[in-house]
């Protein structure tokens, strides 16, 4: 990061954001932590939302509109560490957590035939029962 020249155009900044696979917010935070200055156009471009920066300034030779859309969709997905998923599945199997919590984490519907009446009563729609995750990690 320190070896790079940050006096860049929005197009170069968009290419760096894309290549690093980070958001503009994450890059701003890192640059601020490293006390690296981004002057002029680059500073203004760094204030844009990531999607807007890459949509407006990333060359189609670097990534197509479809590539940008696919990456934005993937970045919006829930992701949990595999260990947490394994521990939550074990907690469901042993009755320490509800099937609804596991279904929420996995982004799947609750399996009605496997769900107990308690699981259904504990279900909070799209909200994760964080109290059931205590002690899992």
Description:
This protein is mainly alpha-helical. The chain has eight helices and no strands. Helix 1 packs across helix 3, helix 1 crosses helix 4 and helix 6 runs antiparallel to helix 7. It is elongated. It starts with 9 loop residues before the first helix and ends in a 15-residue tail after the last helix. The relative contact order is 0.11.
Number of helices: 8
Structural class per helix/strand content? mainly alpha
Gross morphology is elongated
Q: What's the gyration radius in Å?
A: 21 Å
DSSP summary, beta strand count: 0
Which labels suit this protein?
137 residues, mainly alpha, 53% helix
Brief description of this entry?
The chain is mainly alpha-helical and 137 residues long. 53% of the residues lie in helices and 0% in strands. α1 (10-20) packs across α3 (40-46), α1 (10-20) packs across α4 (50-57) and α6 (82-93) runs antiparallel to α7.
